[in-house]
From TrEMBL, chains A, B:
Gene3D superfamilies: 3.30.70.100
Coiled-coil stretches noted in the UniProt entry, renumbered to this chain: none
Domain of life of the source: Eukaryota
PROSITE patterns linked to this entry: S_R_A_B_BARREL (PS51502)
Protein name, entry field: Stress-response A/B barrel domain-containing protein
Length: 105, 105
């Protein structure tokens, strides 16, 4: 699915229970219809130098930019973000219309 | 599609013609069967502070880790990487088995 993407890569603080964060995120995306799909992953084998301390990637897909904007302003997202921001050591966010250059067959 | 993901986020050097890089990448993924899907995007509106200079995200999907390993060792990838690495100012790579927490409907 192309659509509009919200990509978050993070390094969590050392004392953070990542499972709790994931549960909150799972609840968040299930509550907000504008989130059309959500997948995530943890890099456990990449080269440390290349991932520069980042360990987790979270990728949400929206139908379009309007869907993303609705998500960002949603009260559940605002509440979640406040908690999430206390858990992170480093973060990079990228938001972009996705270009599908090779489609899954 | 879940599978194994190869996520690359970059900031290109200032004098780089990104269109040329994209053409090379498009050729690369079309040449290598192990790449099941490929999408990318350019963040043109996110907050500079949150994207920390990174501008582009590239996301490739493989059936499994073996597919990814085949891609990495493929002569076309080795050749492309040599060129690509000269074009980048900053890069983060994350490779991970994807967990689909909300599927596209």
């Amino acid at each position: 699915m192309a659509g509009f993407k919200h990509l978050v890569i993070v390094k969590f603080k050392e004392d953070v229970v990542v499972e709790d964060i994931l549960k909150g995120m799972q609840k968040l995306v299930s509550e907000i219809d504008a989130v059309k799909s959500f997948e995530w992953g943890q890099d456990i084998e990449g080269e440390e130098m290349l991932r520069q301390g980042f360990t987790h990637a979270f990728l949400m897909t929206f139908e379009d930019k309007q869907g993303y904007t609705a998500f960002v302003g949603h009260p559940c997202h605002v509440e979640f973000s406040a908690t999430f921001s206390t858990a992170i050591d480093k973060i990079v966010l990228l938001d972009f219309p996705s270009v599908v250059a090779k489609a899954a067959t």
